[in-house]
Amino acid sequence: MNNNLKKGKLKRWNDDKGFGFIGSEGGRRDIFIHISALKRMSRRPVVGDVITYQVHTDNDRKQRAVNAKIEGVKEISLGSRKKYVKQKKEINWIAKTLSVLLLVGIGFVTYVKYVKNNDPQRRATTSISSYAIEEQNAESYSCAGKVYCSEMTSCDEAKFYQRNCPGTKMDGDGDGIPCESQWCSW
Fold first, then answer.
1. Non-local CB neighbours of 166 within 8 Å, separated by 6+ positions
2. Is the pLDDT at 71 greater than 70, yes or no?
3. pLDDT (average), residues 32-47
4. CA-CA distance, 37 to 41, in Å (whole number)?
5. Segment 101-112 mean pLDDT
6. For residue 115, what is the DSSP state?
7. Residue 63: is it exposed, middle or buried by C-beta count within 10 angstroms (0-12/13-18/19+)?
8. Angle in degrees, CA 48, 50, 55, rounded to 5
9. Domain 6-70 is in which class?
10. What sign results for the dihedral spanned by CA atoms 169, 173, 176, 180?
11. CA angle 83, 89, 94 (to 5 degrees)
12. Lowest mean pLDDT: which of 19-33, 46-60, 90-104, 134-148?
């Protein structure tokens, strides 16, 4: 390894892969640099940074930068870096935990609403009370040849016709609720 410090500008950098190339002062050849050569820096490099480094020649005669520093960027001790990485992992763990809890909460609320809306006893009570109201209103309706929702004036009237009058065409989806898009949309 050459102990002489060299200096050059970072010409290219692939942050996803963690490597780039430094243009050497002499301009002869770009020098490969890996993120591991900058392990004591407080931030990752960006194109245009001035880098001081030592040159190491591999067994296959390829040169690369080692023991590199970004000029003007604060160095951190390895202990501080480990502490930072540990804090980052803890924050990620907390964020993941909160995400899971949020999803569980949403699932629980959805389940409770589903059970509440599909409770047979509640449906029976609602049906009985709405049926009693409809029976009171039924006295004011009579089968007068109305067949379609557009001929009705209320949900109660549509229900009366569906239940009592033959040939009505008010339950297009067959779920037992007439005129859902006009009158009975609850």
1. 143
2. yes
3. 89
4. 9
5. 92
6. H
7. middle
8. 120
9. mainly beta
10. negative
11. 125
12. 134-148
